Amino acid sequence: MRHWISAVVVLVLAGCAPRGEVVVDRSAAGVGVIERIFVAGNRNPDNQPSGGLSFRRIDVSVPPDRKAGTLRYPETDGSPDPRREFLVTADDRLDGPQGFRAAIEHELAGRPARDSDIILFVHGFNTRFGEGIYRYAQVAHDLQLPGIRTHFSWISHGNALAYAADRDSLLYSRDDLVTTLQTLASLRGRGKIILVGHSMGAELLMESLRQLALTGRRDVLDQIDGVVLQAPDINVSVFRSQARAIGKLPQPFFIFTSQHDRALRLSALVSHQPKRLGTLDDPREVADLDVILVDVSKFNSGIGHFNAATSPALIRILSRASELERMFAGDYGSPANPFGAAAIRVQQAAQIVVSP
After folding, report:
1. What does the pLDDT read at residue 332?
2. Alpha-carbon distance 307 to 313, whole Å?
3. How far apart are the C-alpha atoms of 235 and 251, rounded to whole Å?
4. Which of 95, 141, 249, 336 is 20–30 Å from 273 (CA)?
5. What whole-number distance in Å separates Cα of residue 167 and Cα of residue 161?
6. How far apart (Å, rounded) are the C-alpha atoms in residues 154 and 132?
7. CA angle 171, 60, 99 (to 5 degrees)
8. Nearest to 221 by CA among 212, 211, 229
9. What fold does the segment set 2-353 form as a domain?
10. What is the percent of the chain with per-residue pLDDT over 70, rounded to a whole number?
11. How would you classify residue 145: left for phi > 0, otherwise alpha for psi between -120 and 50, otherwise beta?
12. Taking a C-beta distance cutoff of 8 angstroms, is the pair 258, 296 a contact?
């Protein structure tokens, strides 16, 4: 009974929280820091299906009066406050995959190699269009992510009670994400391609990588230079099956986990399962896979479902570019690295427990 009460509390809080809608205020460009995001997806900014894969270039103003890890959506029934609220300052429709590719290549032109990586973020369950881009802008700004920011916006219903409907949308969106990955792989002048999937978006990402493998597109998979699954809402056995189908996983392959993730506890309860991949605490369950578990349980914030984005203490660690570079270089076993002191390896898998 106590578990069901907790589940209801999580749903009520999710349903009552203010929702993030796209509010365009061009004057905010002179107040906040602009984060440009190239968006691919199968829905429009009004959260309605776009009738196919569509592309946009969106500028988001990150307000100056905020603390790291915080995200305040714009008010929709009053005057927006660019000093405290995230706002869209420009929203330009791009003409198909060709326009998407051309716009990113134009952005890459003249950039140094260290600033030419492509980072694709795939949002999770119960996420509206605006919430996905605001969250990505917040994460990119707080973690000081280099390179080009791209985002895949799939048709989440934005409703805490629509878990099953979102899973259907996830399966429907696989082809569109595959097309997006193929487009990114064809870019000229780019550096590495890093894929980041959060929550249910992590499963969409894995399903699309699996589809690339099963259709013989190893050429695309071989151009992916790293994968990060944040709080992945995936059955552990399903993940193992997906990984076997993919074969050689892109490297490095990070899985951020937490034993205090209340959203994934609810998902496990609804699914009649003891755990999800994002709450995995024993690397032996994936020991035969070349993956790195990053346990961030000690940085719990809110419901603990996106600690890397919402915990100021963890953000301070992850925002140190040199440490992130060591992680992606595989140097997690070095005592000089704050991630290395608590690193253990079990066969192919490794686990890192990050402490404040």
Report:
1. 52
2. 9
3. 22
4. 249
5. 12
6. 10
7. 60
8. 212
9. Rossmann fold (3.40.50)
10. 86
11. beta
12. yes
Per-residue pLDDT tens for 299-312?
A: 877 787 888 778 77
Residue pair 64/51 in contact (Cβ under 8 Å)? The answer is: no
Instruction: Read off the tokens for 132.
Output: 């996905």
Sign of CA dihedral 238, 228, 131, 24: negative
Quickly state the pLDDT bin for 10 (edges 50, 70, 90). Answer: very low
Q: What is the 3-state secondary structure (H, E, C) of the chain?
A: CHHHHHHHHHHHHHHHCCCCCCCECHHHHHCCEEEEEEEEEEECCCCCEEEEEEEEEEEEEECCCCCCCCCCCCCCCCCCCCCCCCEEEEEEEECHHHHHHHHHHHHHCCCCHHHCCEEEEECCCCCCHHHHHHHHHHHHHHCCCCCEEEEEECCCCCCCCCHHHHHHHHHHCHHHHHHHHHHHHCCCCCCCEEEEEECHHHHHHHHHHHHHHHCCCHHHHCCCCEEEEECCCCCHHHHHHHHHHHCCCCCCEEEEECCCCHHHHHHHHHCCCCCCHHHCCCHHHHCCCCCEEEECHHHCCCCCCCHHHHCHHHHHHHCCHHHHHHHHCCCCCCCCCCCCCCEEEECCEEEEECCC
Could you report the per-residue pLDDT of 332-356, keeping only the tens digit for each?
A: 555 555 555 455 666 777 777 776 6
Sheet holding 193-198, edge to edge: 87-94, 49-62, 33-43, 148-153, 118-122, 193-198, 226-230, 253-257, 292-295, 349-353, 343-346
pLDDT of residue 288: 93
The pLDDT value recorded for residue 312 is 75
pLDDT of residue 175: 98
pLDDT of residue 11: 39
Structure-token pair, residue 173: 């969106």
Nearest to 240 by CA among 281, 177, 285, 202: 285
> If you search the block for the tokens 């391609």, which residue do you land on?
193
Strand partners, 346: 349
